[in-house]
Structure prediction request, 117 residues.
Amino acid sequence: MPWPFFSVGNRRLWLLQMIDFDRLDKTIHEKSRLSIMTLLASRGEWAFQELKAELGMSDGNLITHLRTLGAAGYVQEHRDDSGNRPRTTYTVTPAGQKAFKSYVDVLESIVKTINPG
Prediction:
């Protein structure tokens, strides 16, 4: 099936050229960070060990991505040292919620452009 297009005079303009892919947040777009944001946005607070188990990531890989999301202001870390073992949890910040919603909106617009039905 060819890509959707519209005609202007004798020229066909492909709709994909009209999609601004730069609107995709590159911080979120990386697969592991997208997975983290999806989990955090769907449930709220997640403990580090739960994220690690759910995503099948190593400690180092997970913490690197969480730090990147934290530096962007998308994720907040919470430490609880009151028990026998320290517990670290993560939540999406309001800025992270806004960025994630915007990211999903861009994806939805791409899908609607390709498959308008």
The radius of gyration is 19 Å. The first strand starts at residue 5 and ends at 8. DSSP finds five helices and five strands in the chain. The chain has a mean pLDDT of 86.
